[in-house]
Structures are given as C-alpha cells and as structure tokens.
Amino acid sequence: MMTRRMYAGILFLLTPLLWIFTRWRGWRRPPYRDRWWERFGWGDIHHDRPIWIHAVSVGEAIAAVPLVHALQKRYPNIPILVTSTTPTGAEIVAQRLGTSVRRHYLPYDTSAAMRRFLQRQQPRACLIMETEIWPNLCYWAARFQLPVLLINARLSPRSLKGYGRFSRLFRPALASMTAVAAQSPEDAEAFRQLGAAKVLVIENIKYDLPEPLEALEKGRFWRQHLATRQVWVFASTHAGEEKMAIDVFKQLQIAWPHLLLVLIPRHPHRRDTVEVALQMAGVFYALRSQEIEVESKNVLLVDTLGEVMDFYAAADLVTIGGSFVPVGGHNPLEAAVLSCPIIFGPYMENFRRIARDMLDGNAAVQVDDANALAQQLQQWLQHPQSAQEQGNRALAFVQQQRGSLEKIMQILDDLDLS
Q: Domain 3-deoxy-D-manno-octulosonic-acid transferase N-terminal, which positions (predicted)?
C-alpha cells in the first residue's frame, strides 16, 4: 500500500517529466500555456493572508461563485484567492468574479511545489470544493497549521472504491482536514469510511444560486432576437451526445420546422468535431463565436464559455448533457433556477442526490434513450403550458433547498478567521 512518503518520493522523481508534460500540453492546447509556472508553485509573493478556495474546473468554479460572494460579505477586509486546475475553470472564475478575487492555478501535488505555493500565498484557510483530496496539500497545510475544509463534498461509490485501494495514502489526508462538509448522509458516511475525522452534512451549496439577473437580461435579448421560435437547449454535451441531439432534432423538425437547437459542448475545443457531425447531417448551423445571425439557421453551436445560463434563460426546453453517456451528468440547478423544464438521461451519478430529489419533487424528467427524449420533447412542444408548469416546479424546488451557505459561514466563524 502506498504511503504519503512513497507518494512524495515518486512525484519528486517524476518532476522533470511533469515539466516536459506541461510544456507539451501547452504546445498542443494553447490555453495551458497561460501561467504554466504556477503549476510548480511559482507566482507573486503575497502577505495579505487570503481565504483560499480551490475549484478544479467549470462545475466547481460555478458552484464557488455564491460562496465567494458570501465570504466577501462576511469578511469584507479579507482577500479571496481562487485556484483552479483547468483553463476553462480559470476562465469561468475570470468571467464571473473578475478582479474581485486573486487567481492562481493549483500546483501539482509535489511536495516542493505545494510548500512553495503555501509559503508565497500564505492563506489563512483553505476551502476545497467537492472531491479534491491531495495528500501533499493536506500534509503541508497541517505543517503550516492551515485549516482545510472540504466543502460541498461528494463521493460516488466508484470513487470510494478507488480511494479505498490507497487508504494508507488518503486516510491521513482526510484525517488532517478541519472538517468535511458533505452534500448528503450517504456522502458523509463514505468520507467517514475513508478516514475523515469531522464530517458534517450541510446539503448542497449549489442550491444557493444568486438571483440570475444578468442571465435573465441576456435571455430576454435572445428571445427578442429569435422572435417566436421555440428553443431547445442541449447543454454540456460530450462525445456521442451531439449526434443523438442532431438525430432527435431532425425528428422534431418535421412537426416544428422553426425549432432552434442550441448545442453547447461541455468543452469548446471540441467544436471542430461537432461541426463535422452537423455538416454530415446536412444541418444549417451558426457558430456563437462568429455572432452570425441565426434566423435562417437550424442549430446554434455555442463554442464559447460562460453563456450557458444566458441560453437557459431563453430556452423553452432544456436537456442536461453528460447524462446520456457514462460521464455522470452535469448540474441541472442552473436551468432550474431559470424555470426551465429539464430532461436528463440515465447517467446522473455526479449529481445523484440532486437528480433523485428533483425527480421525487416532479421538478425534472429522466429518460433512458434518444427515443424517450424525443417523445418527451414532443409532448412539451405540443403542450407548452405543461412545459411551463414543469419549469415552475423546478424553480420552486431550488428555492426550498437553500441554506447551505449559511452553515458553511458558521463553520468558518468558529475558526475565527479575522
């Protein structure tokens, strides 16, 4: 079984390869060139002792936004540092939080990089979103007497099994954390099994979405732009889902020739692949990045970041991607807070509690395959009042679940961060 000392030694030996890998990835994908040195712990030196939030990628970054706002309101004199792992996560932070926070890439979990990062940034507390457990981060945080909280923590059965294989590595990391604030009793029990010492159930902070005023305004613009066209948004799609969406859309076009499909891949760099699928299907489409008029088009391919909620606000129907292929689904709450009628597929493991509760509350519809998806969309297109009522139930569901952010603030108050 691997211990932290063995883990640290292996990463030390692999450091030259990590440097080569970083430069190679930056060559292959230019966004990874940006601030690449931060991945080794280098960066500006600060002495203002920020509250540090780590949000690995897009989903976590979006969930962190209301947390940042709550922290800024609670501790107006303490700066906020937000780290991410992916360029898309960093871009979401930049778009939604701007200069109100300091941004940095999370270093690789080598002992030297993590120690260097902590020495240069000097955070007073670390809040990690969801399921990021890094042994060297936890080790050096304990050495620096830095409180670490795992916020909005979730752990799927598959992840529990994977972490369990390396229990001698991850058990000390979890045991050193100040607290684990879990999304559900099931998640809490999973973290206890892995070795977390203090585990609390706070539910899901993703319910504490702020009023989406900006998205509503942009959604109104799109509705005016699209006139009376009905709009189906299929968001956060992965490989295999775009072709399914196109096939379903062509079925729907027979009865609703003016229907517009807004197709939003989870990763914008997949645009070329999705374009090939659209071209092979003979579908007329526009690219959002080129701001082409869509009146004469059948599909709007959104190859930009940060606009999902804007299109939700303009949507008549919404389908959640990552749920028709074994990816685990994506967050349906952003669509729910905008009163959208929501459909997702059979693979919602990443949001299993939210999905289950929404289904129990009749706030979403789950279907198994493309045929069932087409049938449900047809039903709502035929009966728009039914779709509107479904969207209203989704919004009511979110409003009833709020309150987790205040529980996190209470935990932080006990740490006396000021």
A: 35-208
Q: How far apart are CA 262 and CA 274, in angstroms?
A: 12
Predicted confidence (pLDDT) per residue in 150-207, tens digit: 999 988 888 888 888 888 999 999 999 999 999 889 899 999 999 999 999 988 888 8
The answer to whether 173 touches 4, Cβ cutoff 8 Å, is yes
Residues 69, 309: Cα–Cα separation, whole Å: 18
| CB-CB contact of 377 with 248 (8 Å) | yes
Q: How do the domains of the chain map onto residue ranges?
A: 29-208+403-414, 213-395
Which amino acid type is present at position 325?
Answer: V
Instruction: Give me 34's structure tokens.
Output: 């940006």
Average pLDDT over residues 212-218: 89
Q: How far apart are CA 244 and CA 246, in angstroms?
A: 5
Sheet of 260-265: strand order equals 285-287, 299-301, 260-265, 231-237, 317-320, 342-344, 365-366
Fold of 29-208+403-414: Rossmann fold (3.40.50)
CA distance 347 to 237: 13
> Could you give the CA distance from residue 124 to residue 136 in angstroms, rounded to a whole number?
18
pLDDT at residue 1 tops 80: no
Over residues 349-370, the mean pLDDT reads 94
The amino acid sitting at 76 is P
Catalytic residue positions, numbered: 60
Cα–Cα dist 378/45, whole Å: 57
Is residue 402 within 8 Å of 208, Cβ to Cβ?
yes
Spatial separation of the C-alpha atoms in residues 24 and 402, rounded to whole Å: 44
Task: Report which residue type is found at 38.
Answer: E
- DSSP E strand boundaries for 238-335: 260-265, 285-287, 299-301, 317-320
First to last CA, the chain: 41
Asked whether the beta carbons of 369 and 347 are under 8 A apart, the reply is no
Topology adopted by domain 213-395: Rossmann fold (3.40.50)
Counting beta carbons within 10 angstroms of the beta carbon of residue 129, is it exposed (0 to 12), middle (13 to 18) or buried (19 or more)?
Answer: buried
Alpha helices per DSSP H over 256-369 = 271-280, 308-314, 333-336, 352-360
Residue 94 near residue 71, CB atoms below 8 Å: no
DSSP assignment letter at 316 = S
On whether the CB atoms of residues 323 and 344 are closer than 8 A, the answer is yes
Tokens of 211: 């009023």
